[in-house]
Amino acid sequence: MKPAYKISLAALAVVVVVVFAYWLGARSNNGQSGAQQTQVKQAPKIRYYRNPMGLPDTSEVPKKDSMGMDYLPVYEEDPASMQAKKERKILFYRNPMGLPDTSTVPKQDSMGMDYLPVYEGDNESSENGTVIKIDVEKIQKLGVRTEKATMRQLNRSVRAVGRIEADERRVYTIAPKFEGWVEQLHVNATGDVVKAGQSLFDVYSPDLISAQREYLIAVQGVNAMQDAVPEAQGSMKELAQSSLMRLKSWDIGDDDLRKLRESEEVKRTIAYRSPVNGIVMEKPAQKGMRFMPGEALYKIADLSTLWIIADVSEQESGLIRVGQLAKVQLDAYPGREFSSRVTYVYPTLNQQTRTTQVRLELANTNGALRPGMFAQVALSGLGSKGKVISVPDSAVIYTGRRNLVLVELAEGRFEARVVKLGEHSDDYIEVKEGIGDGESVVVGANFLIDAESNLKAVVAGFSQAEKDKPAEIPPTTQVK
Known about the structure:
By secondary structure, the chain is α+β, with helices and mostly antiparallel strands. The protein has 5 domains: 1-43; 47-119, no CATH class; 131-152 and 386-468, conserved putative lor/sdh protein from methanococcus maripaludis s2 fold; 157-167 and 302-382, Beta Barrel (Elongation Factor Tu (Ef-tu), domain 3); 176-284, no CATH class. It contains 8 helices and 29 strands. The chain has helices spanning 3-42, 79-86, 136-142, 206-224, 230-249, 254-263, 446-453, 455-468, and strands at residues 46-50, 58-59, 72-75, 90-94, 102-103, 116-119, 131-133, 145-148, 150-152, 155-166, 171-174, 180-185, 193-194, 199-204, 269-273, 278-282, 290-291, 298-301, 305-313, 325-330, 337-350, 355-363, 374-382, 388-392, 396-398, 403-410, 413-424, 428-433, 440-444. Strands 7, 9, 24, 25, 26, 27 and 28 form a 7-stranded antiparallel beta sheet that branches. A hairpin with a 6-residue loop joins strand 20 (325-330) and strand 21 (337-350). Helix 4 runs antiparallel to helix 5. The chain is rod-shaped. 19% of the residues are buried. Mean pLDDT is 79; it is low at 33-41, 123-128 and 470-480.
């Protein structure tokens, strides 16, 4: 082969290799460009920018809040995700800002933001829309605590504020039954201690003098007519007896009557004595004053036994029973506790304070207690039922329209259940419907779970389920 021909073939081979390499490079570049274009086409579109702190504030363009934090973009869903979600069933649409508002059809809020669909199988809900799923790590950070619902007797202490008052059955009014004048006061100050039979004052009364004279004349007549006929003696004895009864009805004591018979002299003044032991609570009597029959001169109270009148709230009044034990503490004696018992529950309710009065009795042996003192009363007793299913009071979430309890189904899975509550104790509450004995309920950090999982959407699911129920037709009432 000639040298010139060999050089021509070599040049041709070089050209072919260069062309082939250029073709491969162009194809590779076209593939990358197409992939980039496809990637650009598939990049999600930004719908709006939301406040980084979760406040109800959005923007159509990038911006910063007052602390310099960038607003976060909210993207439209990619076609593949949308297609996958279209294949799942939409349970309802929830408010984009997390407010407790749902809809069965797509809608927008007052700011023009679309409501977000909640699908079957989402983390916020299960088939019935009440199961909450939270990562185990988050549960540990939240400090979630659980406790089992158990059967227990609910013992509840009812606390009330009371005041010490005098026993109304041991309060006496000194009111003479005749007209007269106070000649001399022997008990002349409010608060004085008096004994039964002690002289309160000396009284002068013309009616009393006439009664004494009649009695002495009748007694002398009985003695003088000992030899008279029986009919005359009987008449004189009846006169003496009626005069004696008249003096006794005016509260003249037996000792004064005996002295009158022995002396056979009419006394100008007679001592008026106290019928009871006690303390002088009121003393209208004044030396030299004139009084009329029935006019109160003294008010004496026996304070050996006192009443405590406690005001119990309307909600707790049904727990009070006669004979119930109580512990009483007084501000005057810190750290000292008195034992008492309920003796009467008043049948009326104070409409201004919405309380019922409860009466307790307390012995005042050493006189340390005084009417008017305030008392802290703790009434102890059992619930009206036996053992019932109960949970700690902290386990119940009060939403206003219904009461919820978070039941732990498994690690990281909780179910929000509507419960029907019953009686309360100091720390526990009866659950009539909604949970069973032995189920674990969340007793700590349940409101943090609320914030973490948007429990309001779960509550909205309950509301929607109630709306979807068919209306019940009430039974026909036959009018007779």
